[in-house]
Amino acid sequence: MIDCGADWLGRLSSVAPTAIILTHAHPDHAWGLAKGAPCPVYASKKTLDLLHGFPIQDRREMPIKKFVMIDGVRFKAYPVQHSVRAPAVGYRVSAKGVSFFYVPDVAGLPDVPNALRGINVYIGDGATMTRSMVRKKSGTLIGHAPMTGQLSWCKMAGVRRAIFTHCGSPIVRGNARVLSAAIRRLGRAQGIDARLACDGNRLSLSGGRRGRRHRAPKRA
Predict the structure, then answer these.
(1) Are 159 and 79 found together in one domain?
(2) Which residues in the chain belong to E strands, given as ranges?
């Protein structure tokens, strides 16, 4: 399970994760662990330090830019720009010859070519489609890059599929059909198959060919 926001507090038994991997310590990504975790929790040292008051018994530090094998799946953390107080990472996740890059909150992605090299699918920050929510604080980019900016990263790195999740309120409350069509158009403009994630989606990937995206019963 990647990230465990406050809305998962007291509900982890329904998922029964064998491991939880955190991107950063903001409440909507980590505070579902406020009463502890039923499994090992992996996160950067900075994130684990910020969660020092949580009764997490099995804390495992995730090194930066080094592969870690978790239950047969390889994770590699890349620092991203999003918050000064709660530094974030994105994860390159690999198994059976395919890889995706997951970064639900991001203002800037340093070293795009290396982070996204050989990625089959980019799964990114769905806070906003075209309006930038990026600003500078203490010389560091914070906030949320628009989907259009993230699509440009994908184009730069040769990534041909993108899915946007962790969506902002205007998207969650909007017309899913209209918004999905708009996101597909934004993707096509850069040669990328871009989609909107919805609750309940399942994404199948296989080496050497495109996986399938299943429709969800409700919006994310």
Answers:
(1) yes
(2) 20-21, 41-43, 59-61, 68-70, 73-80, 88-95, 98-102, 121-125, 133-137, 140-144, 161-165, 193-196
